[in-house]
From TrEMBL:
EC number: 1.-.-.-
GO molecular function annotations of the record: flavin adenine dinucleotide binding; indole-3-pyruvate monooxygenase activity; N,N-dimethylaniline monooxygenase activity; NADP binding
Family to which this protein belongs: Belongs to the FMO family.
InterPro entries noted in UniProt: Auxin_biosynth/cation_transpt, FAD/NAD-bd_sf, Flavin_mOase-like
Gene3D superfamilies to which the protein is assigned, alphabetical: FAD/NAD(P)-binding domain (3.50.50.60)
Keywords (A to Z) from UniProt: Auxin biosynthesis, FAD, Flavoprotein, Membrane, Monooxygenase, NADP, Oxidoreductase, Pyruvate, Transmembrane, Transmembrane helix
Residue intervals passing through the bilayer: 244-262
The protein's enzyme class: oxidoreductase
UniProt-recorded name of the protein: Flavin-containing monooxygenase
Catalyzed reactions: indole-3-pyruvate + NADPH + O2 + H(+) = (indol-3-yl)acetate + CO2 + NADP(+) + H2O
């Protein structure tokens, strides 16, 4: 049965569809939204998921390159209450991860409303309810009314497009990393990859594998770590050490091990930040690069490392060191940002500046008046699972308590009715 009642909104001059949702509204059907929905299902709480795209996990299905694999071992990436299939490799591919998410949604009977982009959400003090307005692909406006609002739009909701001098005059193709699928269409081309996070590094590798000539811009500094050390995942080693040792010490050990495996990488233009990799991830959300082959290509000269950009010309780029490079295309691997400030009308819980909850992990999952956030932990999928479990339990407790009270009231009422006969 559908979890809605239709109402007519009398506030406006025209009649707009207005839907009462019995249970929470979850905005976003990525891994975070799905995980929360599954945890609510587990607690017997009905919900509704609103998704702007036409499918679940749109970041993975529509905005990720072909060669993408999970970077962390599978045990850190599975969502609550349904493990990855046994036959999945240590680092599942994009396809496998999407298949898993599709089966996850089926298993927990999660059926999002697709093509519904949330335009605004505000808490109505008078009624004590959230009013969530969406615009569909057919430009129909709908207002959802609910007691709980779960924000699951993610850390990667919008692309960061840098405003670099002359970029508008550049005559070649300019795309963001989220639009890049494969190096096939860049064969033989000189491509400038702007940015050296995990995206920039892997796209440069993919371009090189397709016989393009990538130059990768490193304007500041970056931590590159081997994905594995002596056959063990670096991330797993770090997690294990963090149980016993302080973060700064784990960082020191990881950096020594990285140096033993990778050698001195500064001579290739890969300057390390002064803050350690895990502390930097914790403090600023900057993810260390887990190397999957790019370093070797940098060492061999197949991938060129260049400093920051001064400006673009029609078919060239001028770097901060004055060097000019002739280029055919630009891939902006310049990262992503949250879009929460553009639609959530609220100042207490979410920061207007960066669109993340103001309180860092593990305190950033619950706000006031039935507001929740999932997947803004700067800790990838495992952080999202952590939030989802807490939200499920929190709403589940209130739901069960109220259902019990309602049942008691109904039973009492029945008894009174019966005793009157
Ligand atoms: C290329 C890439 C690879 C990654 N690999 C890993 C990895 O291996 N391991 C790991 O732990 N983490 C990884 N991450 C981190 C990543 O953040 C998570 O994997 C994961 O996708 C986050 O899930 P999410 O649901 O929070 O966000 P998303 O997957 O971005 O999902 C959010 C959803 O909300 C929808 N949405 C946004 N705004 C609105 C709106 N206004 N109205 C309605 N719907 C809206 C979006 O369309 C989207 O479907 C990776 C990130 C990227 C970019
Ligand atoms: N397989 C996997 O698991 C993968 C995971 N990911 C994850 O997705 C998330 C996003 O990664 P990613 O897309 O790499 O984004 P990041 O935010 O990690 O990196 C953005 C990069 O762009 C640079 N940059 C931004 N603006 C400019 C500019 N104007 N000029 C030059 N450089 C610029 C930044 O430099 P600076 O540091 O100086 O600001 C930084 O190097 C991360 O969490 C990452 O780990 C991504 C790809 C693969
Ligand atoms: O958040 C990401 O983008 C990831 O790729 C996963 C991730 C979470 N925490 C980390 C710490 C070190 C390296 C990768 C990750």
């Amino acid at each position: 049965m559908e979890n809605v009642f239709r109402l007519v909104d009398h506030e406006d001059y025209f009649s707009r569809r207005c839907i009462w949702v019995n249970g929470p509204v979850i905005v976003g059907a990525g891994p975070s939204g799905l995980a929360t929905a599954a945890c609510l299902r587990d607690q017997g709480v009905p919900f509704m998921v609103l998704e702007r795209a036409e499918c679940i996990a749109s970041l993975w299905q529509n905005r990720a390159y072909d060669r993408l694999k999970l970077h962390l071992p599978k045990q850190f990436c599975q969502l609550p209450n349904l493990p990855f299939p046994q036959h999945f490799p240590e680092y599942p591919s994009k396809r496998q991860f999407i298949d898993y998410l599709e089966s996850y949604a089926r298993h927990f009977d999660i059926n999002p409303r697709f093509n519904e982009c949330v335009q605004s959400a505000r808490y109505d003090e008078t009624s004590g309810l959230w009013r969530v307005k969406t615009l569909s692909a057919t430009r129909t406006e709908v207002e959802y009314i609910c007691r709980w609002l779960v924000v699951a739009t993610g850390e990667n909701a919008e692309c960061v497009m840098p405003d670099i001098d002359g970029l508008g005059d550049f005559k070649g193709e300019v795309i963001h990393a989220s639009e890049y699928k494969s190096g096939e269409s860049f064969r033989g081309k000189k491509v400038l990859v702007v940015g050296c996070g995990n995206s920039g590094m892997e796209l440069s590798l993919d371009l090189s594998n397709h016989n393009a000539s990538p130059s990768m811009v490193i304007r500041s500094s970056v931590h590159v770590l081997p994905r594995e050390i002596l056959g063990r995942s670096t991330f797993e080693l770090a997690v294990m050490m963090m149980r016993w040792l302080p973060l700064w010490l784990v960082d020191k050990i990881i950096l020594i091990l990285a140096w033993l495996v990778l050698g001195n990488i500064e001579k290739y233009g890969l300057k390390r930040p002064s803050t350690g990799p895990l502390e930097l991830k914790n403090r600023e959300g900057k993810t260390p690069v887990l190397d999957v082959g790019t370093l070797e290509k940098i060492r061999s000269g197949d991938i060129k490392v260049v400093p920051g950009i001064n400006k673009f010309g029609k078919n060239e780029v001028e770097l901060v060191n004055g060097e000019r490079l002739e280029i055919d295309a630009v891939v902006l691997a310049t990262g992503y940002r949250s879009n929460v400030p553009s639609w959530l009308q609220e100042n207490e819980f979410f920061s207007k500046k960066n669109g993340y909850p103001k309180r860092p992990f593990p305190h950033g999952w619950k706000g006031q008046a039935g507001l929740y956030a999932v997947g803004f932990t700067k800790r990838g999928l495992s952080g999202a699972s952590c939030d989802a479990l807490k939200i499920g339990e929190d709403i589940g407790n209130v739901w069960k308590q109220e259902t019990r009270q309602k049942k008691q009231r109904t039973t009492a009422c029945h008894r009174r009715c019966i005793s009157q006969f």
